[in-house]
Design a protein that fits this description.
There is one protein chain. The protein has six helices and no strands. It is rod-shaped and about 120 Å long. By secondary structure, the protein is mainly α. The two termini are 39 Å apart. It has one domain (2-240).
């Protein structure tokens, strides 16, 4: 008797904590979805990440709620929660195509931003090339003499050599700009793919866990309902038999 009482108290305590964790999960969901920005791929991608990284709390809550025996009244609530786990599991599986789609959209957006920045820098470099190409020998000679007076033409013997060195320097800067842009694209892509793989696989595993909880709990709840109904029918039969016996005696 004492053992059954301890089991009942343990189950009640577990369910109480489980419902509390579900309430905290509801608060987290409100923070995730408000305010919504469904047209923004970055917001959608971060939403998937936050849903996956916070999935441990509702999974633990459901495990605690379904722990132990339950009364007939509690079975109704547990049945509703069980079907909700099915819905949530399917929604988590649907996060997978959303995560893949937002990954592609963010990568396209990142490449576009980097391209816009590098195009601006390359346009400035091209402008300097055109200025250098259009510069006359007289203009270049005057510039060369100005540099010599300021002692800034060290190692340069003529204005034509100055032109050649300027073209070389411009080409070097252009190469650096392109290399930096490629590095930025690669760095952004690596970070994006890392988070995408972690969150998409997490959504897949989470979805299957919710579906597994639904399958196990709905079978158990159905069995408990059938058992309870069978006990009630048996009790009614016994009461009917007693009533019939008393009537015969009378």
């Amino acid at each position: 008797m004492e053992r059954n009482a301890n089991v009942w108290w343990s189950g009640s305590l577990f369910r109480l904590v489980g419902y509390g964790l579900l309430l905290l999960t509801a608060f987290d969901l409100a923070g995730i979805f408000f305010p919504p920005h469904f047209a923004d791929p970055v917001w959608e991608f971060q939403m998937v990440g936050r849903l996956v990284e916070g999935v441990g709390v509702p999974l633990l809550a459901l495990t605690m709620i379904f722990y132990g025996e339950a009364s007939l009244r509690e079975l109704t609530i547990l049945k509703i929660l069980s079907w909700l786990t099915l819905v949530v599991g399917l929604l988590y599986l649907l996060l997978l195509p959303l995560g893949l789609s937002t990954t592609w959209r963010i990568n396209t957006q990142n490449n576009r931003e980097v391209s816009n920045q590098i195009n601006q820098q390359l346009a400035q470099i091209q402008q300097r090339k055109e200025i250098l190409n259009q510069a006359s020998d007289r203009d270049l000679d005057a510039f060369f003499l100005s540099l010599k007076r300021q002692s800034r033409a060290t190692g340069i013997k003529s204005s034509q050599e100055l032109r050649s060195r300027l073209f070389t320097e411009i080409a070097r800067i252009e190469g650096q700009v392109k290399a930096l842009a490629d590095a930025r694209r690669l760095e952004a892509l690596q970070g994006l793919l890392k988070n995408s793989a972690k969150w998409n696989l997490g959504a897949l595993v989470s979805g299957f866990l919710f579906l597994l909880i639904w399958r196990i709990t709905i079978q158990r709840i159905t069995a408990e309902e059938q058992k309870t109904l069978a006990e009630m029918e048996e009790l009614l039969e016994e009461e009917g038999g007693l009533g019939l016996g008393f009537s015969r005696k009378g």
